[in-house]
Every structure is written in structure tokens, then in C-alpha cells.
Amino acid sequence: MKKILVIDDDVDICLLLSRFLTKNAFSVSTAHSGAKALEILKKETFDLVLCDFRLGDTDGTEILTKIKEINPAIAVIIITGYLDIKIAVKVIKLGAFDYVTKPLFPEEILLTVKKALESLENKNSNEAVRAKLDVTDSDFIFGESSQSKELYRQIDLVAPTSYSVIIYGESGTGKESVAQTIHNKSPRKNKPFIAMDCGSLSKELAGSELFGHEKGSFTGALTSKIGHFELANGGTLFLDEVSNLSYDIQASLLRVLQERKAKRIGGLKEIDLDVRIIVATNENLYDAASKGEFREDLYHRFNEFGINIPSLRERDKDIMAFANHFLKLANKELQKDIKGFSEDVTNSFKNYQWPGNLRELKNVIRRSALLTDEEFVQKKVLPPEIYNFNNSFLEKKQGFMLHQVSSAPNLKNVAHEAEYETITSVLEQVNYNKSKAAKILNIDRKTLYNKMKAFNI
């Protein structure tokens, strides 16, 4: 029986989730604080943690990091409000398997839990436990926008070579999918493709995951472990969020790339390596290297070819192609036959900015498909932030911009526009909590109200 730990400072939610998951044949324990949860995790072994992001004594980012330090192999699902999409993307980068948004639906919780546990069972015991940030389904489709076509042209160009590649892109844009596609189009396609999420590993674990270790080489090394370089030998090693590697690990990585040999931690035998390296980051590695935050020599070793993946909002012509693809996958997962999307839903998708990119789009459609019992997905099953986005935010912004454009361009107009952008950005960050926004903007609430009224926010 799989063991699940539910962490939430709301006693009622803990009780409801415990009862529901117990009825579905899971062994469930609960904790009402982060401190208590960590205490339990140090004493007992669990297969999965279901944790609310906002706890009384900590938050999801901090507790996720500590959970992974105690047990890197455990699957963690974060519960968050939909407006916290940027936070959700962040915890995915830190190693959470997935996130679910409030209000909670039992069927969605159960599906996500089963998917996480199934993923753990299917992983090679020697591979690093990592969250799937991007879409890597075998029937992944490509868009038709000019940005997408240029992306695929670059993939076709570099794939047959042995070049190392840096893939740049926001979280959720499909960096692993691009890396997998490069591998599949290369002469190494019949060899292993091994992926490692550098963002979810501590300094101590990164060396072991990359290079492996021998039994007894450090405290807790109860068995020998094959590293990712060995697993990928002859094929491709994909390092996601590579900028998170510590400086010491960067030095060891550079040495391995130069010598094409590696030793397991605590080992004596050198292993010959033939591995193509593809790395991904949402940071500018050149700037990081210039500032001394990333090894410049390692950057140049990686930078034989660079690919920039456009965000979903930059290729809006592709949104419905991706949406229909994800609906097809959701139909298969849920054993449904939803035909498509209503006109209202299509318009909402095209108008929304998708800060979480493909990951967010996929989750919205999975959730919507779960709630749909008609032939077409209707607006009523979408998160309200999506179908209200155009009406509430864009119309106000467009109205303000039209007012500014009607005037002759001058310094005053530019200043007004910058002020408008700053205020709306801060309000979005704090979920329109005006007290918090005023504090961040260093103005009093009355001034903020007056400015919001003037800008029609």
C-alpha cells in the first residue's frame, strides 16, 4: 500500500483528503505544519507528499527543498491557488512533480496522485528524480507560426551534428521536448536520452547524480549508484536548469567534458565517455559568466550552438494547435470523447498571456476536460482568471493606451505609461491586495486608489 503524507494547516482539508485517499486504498498520514511534516518525514518513509503552498510556519518553496533533502526520491504535489501560477512554475522547477489548484476536485487529486506514483514506478532506479516541466509525449506536435518554423529549422540544422547545445526559454516552453527532438533526429537516436533537473538537487546530491558513487563513499551511500553520464554513454545527456549547479560541480563537469572520462565518487576506475551534452536554462548564461556567477570556460564548452524557444504568447497562432493536442491526450487519459472548444473558450485562450506557457496550457485543458460532460469545452469550466483576462485587464489597458495615443507623444505620456505598467504589474503580483501593493510601491493607499481611478484600473 502506497503511503501519502498530506500537509495543510487547514484541519478540515487534511481530514477530507485523508478520508478520500484512504477510501482509494492509500495509507495516509497528516501534518498541520511544515515543522511537524519534516519531523514525520525523518522518521517514516513515504511515496508521495501532498502539500499546501501556504502554511502557517513556512511556504512551499522552503518545505519542498527540505523534503527533497530528506528524501530526493519522493514525489511532491503542491496545492496552490490558481492566481499563484508563477509560484507553481517555480516549485515545478525546484522538483515538485506537479501542482493542483484550488478549489480542489477529488477526481483531479486522484488522477494526479496516481500519475505521480506511476511515474515513480516507471523510473529507472539509477535516474535522478525530476519533475517533467515540458511536454515530452511521443506524439508531440509542432506549431505553424513563423517563430515555430524557425525553431524547427534550427533543430534540423544542429541535430545531425555532435555540437553541444544551449536551449534558452521560459519555464514550460518545452525545453526538454526540443532536447529530445534533437536527440531523436541525431545519429545517437538509438542510444539513451537521459534527463537531469539540476534545479532540484543540492550540491551534495548533484555530484552523485552526475557521476555516480561507490558503496560506502559517503554517509548514506548504502549501495553503488550509476551516474547520469554512465547512463547516457553513447547517447545524449540533457541538463535542465544548468545554471543552478554549484561552482564546484561546474569545475568537475568541465573536467569530465574535457577529458571524456569520469570516476564515480569514491571510485578508482576511470570510465570512458561518449556523451553529447544539451543544457537548458531560463537565465542568460553569457551574462552569468560575465558576472562570475557561472564558469566562463564551461559556458564556452556548452555554447557550440544556441536555441531560443519563444514563449507561448509570442506564437499565439499555435495556441489552438497545442490546445487540441492536449485535449486529445486528456481524452485518452480520461477515456472521454470531447470534440473541441467553444468559441468563447477559443477566444479566451487566444487573449490570455499564458505565463506558465505549455505547462500551464496543458494543465488548464486537463482540468477543463475533467469537468466537461458535453461535446465541447465551455467557458464555465475554465479558471475565471483566463476567461476574465480580456474583459478585466486587457480592455482597461487598451482603453488607457488609446487615450495616450490620442495625445501627441511626449515625455509626460511616456512617464504615465511607465507608471501605469508598474502599478498594474505590482497589483497582479499581490493578487490586487491594495495594502500590499501600496507598501511595495512606497505610497499610501489613498494615493494608490487615486492613481487606479485615474488609470481606470
Protein model, in words:
Helix content is 48%, strand content 14%. The protein is globular, with a radius of gyration of 24 Å. Mean pLDDT is 83; it is low at 124-139 and 392-408. Strands 2-1-3-4-5 form a five-stranded parallel sheet, sandwiched between helices. Strands 7-10-13-6-14 form a five-stranded parallel sheet. The chain has a two-stranded antiparallel sheet with strand order 8-9. It is α/β, with parallel strands linked by helices.
Give the SSE layout.
Blueprint: E1 3-7, H1 11-23, E2 27-31, H2 34-43, E3 48-52, H3 60-70, E4 75-81, H4 85-93, E5 98-102, H5 106-122, H6 146-158, E6 165-168, H7 175-184, E7 193-197, H8 203-211, E8 212-213, E9 225-226, H9 228-231, E10 236-240, H10 247-259, E11 261-262, E12 271-272, E13 276-281, H11 285-290, H12 296-302, E14 306-308, H13 319-334, E15 340-341, H14 343-351, H15 357-371, E16 376-377, H16 384-387, H17 389-405, H18 411-429, H19 434-441, H20 445-454
Helix pairs in contact: 2-3, 8-10, 13-15, 18-19, 19-20
- Quote the average pLDDT: 83
Please state the CA-atom Rg, rounded to the nearest Å.
24 Å
Major sheet: arrangement of strands: 2-1-3-4-5
Strand content: 5-15%
What global shape is seen?
Answer: globular
Assembly type: single chain
Structural class call reads alpha/beta
Low-pLDDT stretches: 124-139, 392-408
**Tally the helices: what do you get?**
20
Distance between the termini: 52 Å
- Main sheet characteristics: 5 strands, parallel
**Secondary structure: helix percent:** 40-55%
Strands, count:
16
Quick description:
The protein has 457 residues and is an alpha/beta fold. Helices cover 48% and strands 14% of the residues. Helix 2 runs parallel beside helix 3, helix 13 packs across helix 15 and helix 19 crosses helix 20.
